[in-house]
Amino acid sequence: MTQLKLSGAAMVVQALNDLGVKHVFGYPGGSVLDIYDALFQQSEVQHVLVRHEQAATHMADAYSRSTDQIGVVLVTSGPGATNCITGIATAYMDSIPMVILSGQVATHLIGDDAFQETDMLGCSRPIVKHSYSCRAAEEIPTIIAKAFHLAKSGRPGPVVVDLPKDNLNPNATFDYFMPSEIKLRSYNPTIKGHPKQIKKAATALMAAKRPVIYAGGGVISANACDLLVAFAEKLNAPVTNTLMGLGSIPGTHPQFVGMLGMHGTYEANKSMGNADVIIALGARFDDRVTNNTDKFCTGAEIIHVDIDPSTISKNIRADIPVVGSIDIVLKQLLDFWQQEQLSQDSEANSLWWAQISEWRNRNCLKYDNSTGTIKPQQVIEALYRVTDGQAYITSDVGQHQMFTALYYPFSRPKQWINSGGLGTMGFGLPAAMGVKMAHPESEVVCISGDGSIQMNIQELSTCMQYDLPIKIVLLNNGNLGMVKQWQDMIYDGRHSHSYMQSLPDFVKLVEAYGHVGVNISDPSKLEQELTQAFELKDKLVFINVIVEEHEHVYPMQKRLGAIDDMWLGKGVDQ
Amino acid sequence: MQTILSILLENEPGSLSRIIGLFSQRAFNIESLTVAATEDKSLSRITIATNGDHEKIEQIIKQVNKLVDVLRISELSGKAHIERELMFVKLNAQTSDAREEIVRTTDIFRGQIVDCTNQLYTVQLSGKKEKLNAFIRSVKRQSDIIEIVRSGCVAIARGATALKP
Ligand SMILES: Cc1ncc(C[n+]2csc(CCOP(=O)(O)OP(=O)(O)O)c2C)c(N)n1
């Protein structure tokens, strides 16, 4: 076999192809034109041209979130690279694998403040899992392979690869070598739980009278959702999900008590607050979950399972830490129970479920829909029926995001795509596009707010170019709803800059981009009009739903309270 | 409490900045930091003196360990170890009494005078932080301190324990 000789630019494309990459999301510019030229000369790797680099990162991110693949971004140096920062941070906070290839000025110009020079490794350092600069063309395939390996293994995350222009020169060719396996002496994530810790955890759980399973996004990224259900059923414990963990157990499963935390359900937060043993699986005790950490679940023994040791005991001290991949650890726990024949106090277990059903009977998600306006909750419930609960749902950030999390019971993992950790407005539309690229046959819906949608609305143009018939459901309340809610509750209703005032005519706007726009404002026609809009299968339909502007998201934790100190409605104390 | 951490990491461009960035990003303290390549040029060894309660130190160790470039980290202050810091002190002594005092004190502290002009003495001293501080307090009484430069501490475990890849 003759040795393949390629230029640096061609190596980038060849390496992506060898790694099984089908789509790259990007935007060209001076320092990466050689790569673009290499892309032009092949057809295996499809490039998707966005309208703003931030959108490329969210598309790649959501592509990763909805598949087992790794989303790839290609941008030029300077502004191209810095426009990616928000998207990289978004992926980093939610531990999403992603590889960002950023152009760089030629090696001899680095440090000279050359045209479009930015220290991308420096800018992105706090928000990446790792980063590389390619110092020679021959290094390119190995570095890209390392980047893919790091992005996906252990605790996943974004990896930046900086590519100085001189190493991409199309006129200089080198031997192309792609390693078949990546080994890094300084990187060996612990996959298997320590047997002593497994024993402690398994024993504590079986002895528990009031156990709770608190499952986060780590369960989904470890592909451990079936095991989670088996584990929960074996233990017959209630399962609550973080915002990132939704879908890891079907939303309709009888043991599912809903999302926990700031806008968690009454029964989820109550179960946590009254538990005697809590097992956290791939969750990180975020402040939006715990509320006041000093008052957090003081009566509970805490088992914390995570692949990242630094997450354990960071916010809440774990009594039984277990480092390992969630799928492996769950198998270990199930095996232990099987071997040791441990049995449970079934009387305590039925008392616990009796208590939980009392909390459920508070029906904390009920809302008043007799006001003559469309309630946002109602839209999500209708959407659930119209899509049979099966659509991929992406969202932006704000009230609409919380309403979706609470009122659309997800049936499977990777169905719910949102920016949890960073809370990035502008995520939803490009995310829906990334999901649609990965799953062209599936229904993909972006739920957004009138504020958020305008943060990446230019991507409607990309949707036209690549024929992405997604559905956008805008819960248009004419306000930055979530900001307004806080101002109502904390700032005596002083609505400082939470009112949008000059919203565009969204229907005209999407028509200008070549898509279909629909206005819905009559509650009695909501479901019918929504159904009609969804019947336009091969069109992007932007559904502008005028919703009640004064609605608040409930339940809501009380500031500085315990996890289960909540408001259940305006002025409705639990 | 002061904690001394010893870190073995890849000697790659940017790996030091990742360590320093991590400390500032997560509001961890750096009292001192020393770094140099090891006999294996592909590795660097860092000694960091930091402080914090038990939980803080545990977090620092875990976060540093999580950096992809880091091979090993060890907390030396909890184990039998040796630590040293190197210091140069430039002193101005106006009187012969003061000059004699410098020579005497330097001798007591087992330092060396490594440079001198009519009135200016530069003393080199190594030892633990407390010893260096005590020397400064002593000589300050009769001489003016022109400048001080300290290396920050380096440390190594006693006995067979070693930080190896
Ligand atoms: C990029 C960005 N800027 C600011 C915020 C702060 N923020 C959180 S929710 C929100 C309001 C969102 O309004 P809208 O998109 O209309 O959604 P609604 O809450 O009305 O459903 C704002 C400004 C954010 N999360 N992201």
Tell me what you see in this structure:
The complex is a heterodimer of chains A (574) and B (165). Chain A is an alpha/beta fold and 574 residues long. In chain A, strands 3-2-4-5-7-6 form a 6-stranded parallel sheet, sandwiched between helices. In chain A, strands 11-10-9-12-13-14 form a 6-stranded parallel sheet, with helices on both faces. In chain A, α12 (287-290) links the parallel β12 and β13. In chain A, α3 runs parallel beside α5, α10 (225-235) runs parallel beside α13 (326-340) and α15 packs across α16 (399-407). Chain A is globular and about 75 Å long. The mean pLDDT of chain A is 97. Chain A has 3 domains: 5-175, Thiamin diphosphate (ThDP)-binding fold, Pyr/PP domains (Rossmann fold, 3-Layer(aba) Sandwich); 195-360, 3-Layer(aba) Sandwich (Rossmann fold), CATH 3.40.50.1220; 376-553, Thiamin diphosphate (ThDP)-binding fold, Pyr/PP domains (Rossmann fold, 3-Layer(aba) Sandwich), CATH 3.40.50. In chain A, 35% of the residues lie in helices and 18% in strands. Chain B has 165 residues and is an alpha+beta fold. Chain B folds into 2 domains: 2-79, ACT domain (Alpha-Beta Plaits); 82-150, Alpha-Beta Plaits (2-Layer Sandwich). In chain B, the strands form 2 sheets. In chain B, strands 2-3-1-4 form a 4-stranded antiparallel sheet, with helices on one face. A 4-stranded antiparallel sheet of chain B has the order 6-7-5-8, with helices on one face. Chain B is elongated. Chain B starts with a strand and ends in an 8-residue tail after the last strand. Chains A and B meet through β6 of A and α1 and α2 of B. Thiamine diphosphate binds at residues 396-400, 423-426, 449-452, 475, 477, 479-483 of chain A.
